[in-house]
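<given_protein>
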Amino acid sequence: MAKKKKFTLHSALPIQELHAVLTSERYLLTNEGIENPGNSRVVDAEQSVRDDGTVTARVHMASQVKAAGAAEQPVAEAAGGDEVGVENNGEPAASQPNEMHVEQTTTVSPIEEDRKGLNFRFATIMPLPGRMGTVFTDMDVRPDDAGTGSDVDVEMRVDTSIPIIGPKLAKHLLGNSEESVGKGLRRAERLVTFPTDETGPNQS
């Protein structure tokens, strides 16, 4: 079964500036600017640029499991789910037996122009732990009416085949989707405000 939700958010960043930060290694491959880093870290990450200018990134994240058996929510801010902090401490996954692992793939198109004006697409795919399903997030970004910021049309879809638990999980993720996608956009604004991590933009 699949459940989805559509909504529109706004960023104060103009489209060119928002695209620049959303395609940066800082945004895609590090934890700089994330509001609640928690107990998560990047195990492995890579980024590439296709011939047509499309940026792709793959991030393997690990989240420490709580004593009760629950894990910190391992969904990336950029994906539109509950945020995960990423901390690259250089330790291999094998040395962390009490961790939950997830992998997220991000694709960002170059800025293009159609009859409606400038736009670009930001999309993520993230399989949920334990083969519970997959979260798809698609964001269509365009300049706002004033031309000073950006409007972001979002569609988040949760596919899961697990009975009983699956619908509850989808409802939870979709219920938090506007806030968590908003956190990702606010993170982009912080990375522009703080060009380096010297000011400590991570929030606890």
About this structure: Confidence is low (pLDDT under 50) at residues 67-76, 78-95. The chain is about 20% helix and 35% strand. The chain has one domain: 2-195. Residues 166 and 192 are 37 Å apart (CA to CA).
